[in-house]
Specification:
alpha+beta; 1 helix; 21% helix
Amino acid sequence: MNRSRHILNVTLNLVLVLAAAHSAEPIDIGSRRELFVDRHLIERTNKARLELHRPTPREVSLVRNKPWKGNVSGYTTVFQDGDLYRM
């Protein structure tokens, strides 16, 4: 799975989890993988704990090197356009 698609999947899954947060019904995640950042989808743990690891620095993914791009960005949007993912 390419990186853009992975980011999009994680983002969409987080949105679905947040949308379902107000539901009293169990959340059916089927066989898909989930990112457990809190205990929202976890009923109990037995001798396990949640641990967020530090990010590993990698190559630069966004360069804001033009005057109209600005030197900061509050967010970036990723969307699917046919077979392409655009940002």
